[in-house]
Design goal:
The chain is an alpha/beta fold. It contains 7 helices and 13 strands. The radius of gyration is 18 Å and the shape is globular. It comes from Moraxella nasicaprae.
Length: 285
């Protein structure tokens, strides 16, 4: 069996998924093999490159600066914790990242024929290249996935937060390969003809490749699990990893996926019932 913990929209709280996974493992005795994250990491190594929304939120929430403060220069306590946990987090890009920073790292990864690339000083946080297949292997079981970072746009804009042409071309190559994969990880949702938002590229991917599950964040909607229009893929909206007005996390922020043979299943972790993981205390857990 292989087991994944899946999150979305951490917005700078890079340490929180690792701490939640550590708590889950200690509580249940079930080992997590990989952490998956659905974009809006808040990967800004320099405060000068932060977008206006991130800077605005950071005025009231220092967690927005978590990457800069905790994952760009080594902290011995954090390094010891992460090395002991011995897990990597694989992410896709969101629309709130330093894309120039990520672009430079991705170009080097492409030259080295890497499917994903490390972005932090501990080499625990990795970003998937859009449209490049990844096989995760724990020695007993494998799971295949595709990532699509950034968000869709129907106005022809080329800004860095929108899916780029080279990424779309990588996806089109996959369509021609006629391969199937276990899961699709995206930041945005597939486009909807009625309301006119979402990503056309993600919708086209779901209509050309048979995935068992698709996970995404971005929209601000609550957790939802429904069969996609292709009649094959379970489309799962992950609740953003954020604290509510009571300072608590909501159910649907942390999903556990298990694969054994051809069987894949998911479960919600009841985060609202976990004592200690509050807005002002989680750093000490």
């Amino acid at each position: 069996m292989i087991r994944l913990a899946i999150f979305a929209d951490i917005h700078g709280k890079f340490l929180l998924p690792f701490k939640l996974v550590n708590h889950y493992q200690n509580l249940t005795g079930k080992k997590i093999d990989y952490i998956i994250q659905c974009g809006d990491m808040g990967a800004f190594p320099n405060k000068n490159t932060m977008d206006k929304a991130t800077l605005r939120h950071a005025q009231n929430d220092p967690d927005e600066l978590g990457f800069l403060r905790q994952f760009c220069q080594k902290n011995r306590e954090i390094e010891k914790f992460l090395n002991g946990l011995n897990l990597n987090m694989l992410c896709v890009r969101g629309n709130h990242e330093d894309h120039l920073f990520l672009d430079n790292l991705e170009k080097q990864a492409e030259l080295n024929n890497q499917t994903h690339f490390s972005i932090d000083c501990y080499q625990k946080v990795w970003v998937m290249r859009t449209g490049v297949p990844i096989i995760l292997d724990n020695g007993n079981e494998k799971i295949s996935l595709i990532g699509i970072g950034r968000i869709g746009d129907r106005k022809g804009r080329k800004d860095s937060q929108f899916i780029q042409e080279y990424e779309y071309q990588a996806l089109k190559k996959l369509f021609k390969s006629k391969q199937d994969f276990d899961i699709l990880i995206t930041h945005d949702k597939p486009s909807e003809s009625i309301r006119g938002y979402g990503s056309v590229e993600i919708a086209e991917t779901l209509n050309n490749i048979a995935f068992s599950y698709h996970f995404y964040g971005h929209t601000g909607e609550p957790f939802n699990n429904e069969l996609y229009d292709n009649g094959i893929t379970q489309s799962v909206k992950i609740k953003e990893l954020e604290f509510n007005q009571e300072g608590k996390l909501s159910d649907g922020c942390m999903i556990i996926l298990e694969k054994s043979g051809d069987n894949i299943s998911i479960e919600k972790v009841p985060l609202k019932d976990i004592i200690g993981f509050m807005k002002n205390t989680w750093q000490y857990m």
